[in-house]
Design brief:
The chain is α+β, with helices and mostly antiparallel strands. 40% of the residues lie in helices and 19% in strands. The structure holds a DNA duplex.
Length: 424
DNA sequence: TCTGGGGTCCTAGGACCC
DNA sequence: TCTGGGGTCCTAGGACCC
């Protein structure tokens, strides 16, 4: 038995925890550049505000209904997430943190208990410890637990907890679920399925396996088996190391100057290096990309990207930054109006494996640059203590390309300064 | 005027090996 | 006109997730 615990309207709920005046008031949270709506409270959903809608397109609606609008505050959401996960970890023998606002719990050993009651206990406890409302779905497979969770969210009579245990309960749940609402079935596959008269989860469960395998491949076949009640997705207790790490941003305004692009790319490259070190990993490939706006019809479109291998796997900020700067020269075109840039590191290996992947030619690797390593350690330690950006490489520059974040709330749980500011 | 960011897995096809 | 069998590795593209 699996439980899926999913926070309700997570980002909007985080804003509410520290701002009681928002109770019952519609709340939305915007994407990184204050561009799109990425989270909505129930009241905001009821107003017809769509997920992913550009903010400027629904500005009149937001104003008319006095919607509380926030820039996304990842310091706050990340910290609130770990509080929720810590609470959940105390309520089940095993937990898989699936995303910032969801976790699977292993309920196998609870089989003899009243699962609905236990689900209510989970809800109450998370609410009491963190202030975040959650819904709980339980079923014999992860895919069915997702469906159970969705039913718990949509139908108030479940009071936030839906358990699918008997064949009968599962059957009716599948009949009430449309294919596009199944975990793992996206837009393209929904279209294909509907065109073939497979409209509900029950239809998909009953479809010929060979047809599913042919059109939806292995992934689809797995979903079908899970819908039929046979578990083939297991609990993943330890998060595997990342295979790629990307840092990219849309700019707060158009960037035309080479120098500003350099600053942005340097900043993203250094961020990637920090993330790599946090993962205890080294990267062997580096990709840099710069892009114009895909929406602006009046400007010439351009998407420049380049990938190169690093001389040897590294997580050194200075090495990665220098390489990224060189690659930028190769893709920069003067006279373009850039709207976005990014740096991606891949070909990732664990730090311990480095000795086995020495390059044949780089002599200096035989005497690793201990000084640079120390510098990175000290920088990470200072930034850990005094906040990101306390010390940085000179080329990293928070220039005028910085994304807009005009409606940022306080980092209530991670920064003393922010709380004092609130008090004042 | 204003449109997010960060990931994964799978498949097919090409280049290459013996 | 005919031209094997069995592999690996890499990349691009397409699908999906939150």
């Amino acid at each position: 038995m699996f439980a899926l615990v999913d926070c309700n309207n997570f980002y909007a709920s985080c804003e509410r925890v520290f701002n009681p005046a928002l109770h019952l008031r519609p709340v939305v949270v915007l994407s990184n550049n204050d561009g799109c709506i990425i989270a909505r409270s129930e009241e905001a959903k009821a107003l017809g505000i769509q997920m992913g809608m550009p903010e400027f397109k629904c500005r009149p609606l937001l104003k008319q209904h006095d919607v509380a609008v926030f820039s996304s505050n990842y310091a706050l959401y990340g910290d609130m997430s770990s509080r929720v996960m810590m609470t959940l970890a105390s309520l089940a023998p095993e937990i898989e943190v699936y995303s910032i606002d969801e976790a699977f719990l292993d309920m196998t050993s609870f089989a003899r208990f009243d699962l609905t009651k236990y689900g209510r206990l989970i809800r109450r406890t998370v609410r009491q410890h963190t202030g975040i409302p959650v819904c709980v779905g339980m079923a014999p497979t992860k895919t069915l637990a997702k469906i159970a969770n969705r039913l718990a969210k949509k139908n108030p009579h479940y009071q936030g907890v839906c358990v699918l245990a008997t064949a009968e309960e599962i059957r009716t749940a599948l009949e009430r679920t449309k294919v596009e609402d199944i975990w793992g079935i996206g837009r393209q596959w929904s279209k294909l399925l509907q065109a073939n008269r497979i409209e509900s989860a029950a239809d998909l469960a009953a479809a010929p396996a060979a047809w599913v395998k042919k059109h939806l491949h292995l992934v689809g076949a797995r979903i079908q088996v899970e819908l039929q009640g046979t578990s083939c997705l297991t609990m993943e207790l330890v998060r595997p190391a990342k295979q790629s790490i990307c840092t990219s941003r849309s700019f707060g305004r158009s960037v035309t100057l080479h120098e500003e692009l350099q600053q942005a790319v340097a900043t993203f490259a250094a961020r990637c290096a920090v993330k790599l070190r946090k993962e205890n990993s080294l990267a062997s490939l580096l990709t840099v990309f710069i892009a114009t706006s895909p929406f602006d019809e009046s400007c010439k479109r351009y998407w420049g990207t380049r990938t190169a291998s690093l001389p040897s796997p590294t997580s050194d900020s200075m090495t990665i930054l220098r390489a990224a700067q060189t690659m930028l020269e190769g893709i920069f075109r003067a006279g373009m109006s850039y709207k976005k840039a990014g740096v991606l590191v891949s070909g990732i290996v664990p730090k311990e494996a480095r000795s086995t992947t020495l390059s044949l030619f780089a002599e200096e690797e035989l005497l690793p640059n201990e000084r640079d390593k120390k510098i990175m350690q000290v920088m990470d330690a200072i930034n850990q203590r005094y906040g990101r950006g306390a010390v940085r490489l000179a080329a990293e520059n928070p220039g005028s390309w910085k994304p807009q974040q005009e409606r940022l709330s306080a980092r209530y749980t991670t920064r003393w300064d922010d709380i004092i500011e609130v008090k004042g």
